[in-house]
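ugh finaly. both done.
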Amino acid sequence: MPTTDAVKGGEPLPIEVADLVIRYEGTSGVPAVDGASFVVRAGEVVALVGPNGAGKTSTLQAIEGALTSANGSVRVFGLDPRAERRALADRWGVMPQSGGLPMGLTVGETASLFASLHGQPSGTAERVLATMGLADLRSQRWRRLSGGEQQRLSVAVALCGGNDLLMLDEPTAAVDAAGRDRILELISARAEAGAGVLLTTHRFDDVEAVAQRVVVMDRGQIVASGSVAELTAEQSVRFTATPGLDLSAIASSLGVRATAVSESGPGKYVARVDPSPQAVSNLTSWLASQGVIAEALTAGRVPLEQRFRDLTMPPVDEGDASEEAAGGERTARRRRRS
């Protein structure tokens, strides 16, 4: 059943995922997706991000109706995307997975094929190819395109679909700067025209450029969701220095509780504090008194990529940190002897 915010003016949401669970054989019963829930609203770009193996592609495949092993609820405009896929053909555009295009067809034939499958009007394929900078390549076959051109054709295929929902998996991978800018412009334009957009990407500059909301996935679960501003609102001081510094002394210099300071990895310090110029000055003074030079010191809002790392990278315990630090020192000694 739709959630409370699933209907706007009587229209079901473009995407509603509730308690999605996906398991594959040979994974010792560990779900690839474990209870994921999120929505995509009309006129909104949602970026689904996560490390490799987080479950992003499996989630996309479930939304596209390509999986039979999913439990939970997935609805696209209120419909079951597997059982009622035909009814969605003229409403969504889906970027094929890598290698999912017919290699024997030309660029023009490929675009025309997908436009016809989605019931798009005559001329759609030519318009999209021109928009994607592929018009001069319409007679080339897929296998003869460069990696960036193949990627642009995959995005073009999605744009040849319906106008109400766009789903893109790593749309700017292997694309040059000009092509990336054009793809991001088209994504924003689709959303501004009222479409829901769901994309996966490892490029945080893409996320910051177009996404109204970010859904962070790790080990099959949704671990955070919100706007870029919401996810990066936390203030902190971060720096790199000698491993094993006194965390209580660092906290005291900053005027915060000891629990606000941690060593996230060997020599990588994080103080979750609203940094004032005086606090940062006190910290650097204390470090200088210890004969320690801080590197890469930053103070202020946490960048999106760093926030992602905080959410998805497993914490390093003291034993691991000590062992890694010792290994680094042994390497340094070997280099000095050589």
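ok and the 2nd:
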Amino acid sequence: MIAHDLNVIIVGGGFGGLRVAQGLGGTSVGVTLIDKRNFHLFQPLLYQVATGALSPANVATPLRSVMKRNRNVQVLLGEVTDIDLDRKQILLDQEWFAYDILVLATGATHQYFGHDDWREAAPGLKTIEEALDIRSRIFRAFEAAERESDPARIRALLNFVVVGGGPTGVELAGALREIANYTLRKEFRNINPVDAHVILIEQGEHVLPMYVPKLSAKAEALLKSLGVEVITGAAVTGIAPDTVTAMRNGQEEIIQASTVIWTAGVKASPIGMLLAANGNATLDRSGRIEVESDLSLPGHPGVYVIGDLACCKSDSGRPLPCVAPVAIQQGAHVVNEILARLHNGPPTSFQYRDYGSMATIGRAAAVVQLGRIRFSGYAAWLTWLFVHLMSLVRTENRFLVLLQWSWNYWTWNRSARIITEPGEVAHTEKP
């Protein structure tokens, strides 16, 4: 067995964890990358899997493939169920593994704000399985409407509600409207897909609340031009099969809808609760672990927490958002911290550089906020395409996605419109 200067265990192969593994590749550090999935998922494009524009293989990359040239990096498939900070060990499927440095980057799941019973009727969008489930629900609704004779039931089946007006919600709502307007045209005989009603509900006063008001207003206008009904200042108070209840201006409104998609909040992975139960971590209200300025766990300088699992505050005192650029920059910082430890270097504070935000609303329409530079429309859409394409991990994925996007653009088609049963593997899909 090869001896290494440090034994580093990384839990989580998302943006942050993968960045650490890649940064330590080829060094004298021994790295073990652990994830309960065998692939890295490019979540910003997951909504396109959910709406049939891309196949799962387009947005997922096997971790072993990414790390195959780094002989000092070992990839293990499994789920960490316990951490002993005193003994410096993690429990992986009933087997204890020792570490010198531990990096926790297990991400986040959905936040239903105390209403976990809504999950079945309103799935979130964090995993490939959830994307395939949502895709099946969307296209199954049109199929059911085609066979229905009751006009009221047809309207309910063709009502689609997206809860949450952040980037994912906006992108989903726009894609749903384009499916109805263009993709499914002339494919049905008893219904007109254009009659589908897409409703986006946002509790705040504007969609994309993290953007400047001018861009938020532009995004809302673009959604409405597609035919999306945007409801702001409304809080969802109930979700049941075929109905959504919302409060707006003190009035209760019940919406009949067969398909509801949840994009309204995130909650850190259970690792945070595990460390809190052991008395070693302080969590914020989203379950994120509060960290030191160098991203280490308080009282444990050899344990780093990054990405959506970390509550890391900016210079203004506000927690950094749960977005990929934060996780990637934190991963790069941890790489530098680990390499500095090899030479007894002191810890340094993490500084996040906000390079901007962007969201696509539909075909040839997007909004981009890059510091003081803000623009929308076709140029913003091209910027969005380029940034997301180049952010994919492998060249192969970039080529496949570019090819699929080009085909979708010229034909208005979404070739991955396959309906699968829950848990079923779509063997017929091509990358």
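summary for the 2nd one i guess: The longest strand covers residues 234-240.
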